[in-house]
Amino acid sequence: MIVIVRNGQRIVIDGWRAWVIAIPVLLLIAAFAVVLLGLVLGIALSVASFLLFAIPVALVLGLLFQAFQPRR
Question: At CA 42, angle to CA 25 and CA 38, rounded to 5?
């Protein structure tokens, strides 16, 4: 049952007409949720893989620069 209030007047949509309206709306919401979930998962995997490789490379480069630094 879909209830629409417009200018103080109530319109009730029920039965098969409500299903005809509700099914495409639910499919659009589900598609939007899948796209948003894929985007968030892709960003999370990208950040995680970048950190997985960037932190060890930064540590190795830091050790190399420290090893070749002139002594005081």
Answer: 15
pLDDT digits (tens, 9 = 90+) for 10-45: 999 999 999 999 999 999 999 999 999 999 999 999
Task: State the SS3 of 7-54.
Answer: CCEEEEECCHHHHHHHHHHHHHHHHHHHHHHHHHHHHHHHHHHHHHHH
Report yes or no: 2 and 12 within 8 Å, Cβ to Cβ.
yes
21, 13 Cβ separation under 8 angstroms: yes
* 53 φ/ψ angles, rounded to the nearest 5 degrees: -100, -30
Half-sphere exposure of 20 (CA within 13 A, CB side): 5
- The tokens describing 37, both together, are 């979930």
The answer to whether residues 42 and 22 touch, using CB atoms and an 8 Å cutoff, is no
